[in-house]
Amino acid sequence: MPAKMLPRGNGSGALWRWRRVVVVCLCAVMFVAAGCAPKQEEETPERVVEQFIDRMESVHGDPKMARAAFDLMWSDAQRVLTERAKRASAVVGRNLGPEEMIAPSHFSLRFEPHRFKARVEGQRAVVAVIGASPGERFDVHCVREENGWRVVLDIPEPPPIRKRKTED
Is residue 32 assigned to a domain? Predict the structure, then answer.
């Protein structure tokens, strides 16, 4: 007779107690494991700016870091870099990614950031990047998009493509 079908009176009580203990222990382990799982840090404008600065400082020759920095830019900057990559690809004869349009030599910090403090107003935020000395501060604008907070960069639109007039 299968163990489930044994009546309680002929020695199966120990089996039932053992199963109950196992089930309770498994449930306890699942609850503890769920509580111990690393919690994903809440995305804040301060955290996004800090990550963006770290990634931009690491772009030099590393396409993964360039892509990671590109992913933290707001959609307008991504659109402009994508258009620039499309045009550059046509000139060089190979496909370039928009992250390859990031010029790391144009990114440098005047001081080492020590603190980040955001002022959030609706879907926009201004993050103050503060250094160790008085006067060491600059502001970074952010916007909340559907994929989270993103860094606002003012990247100029590429000029319109001029077409030569053909003479007939």
Answer: no
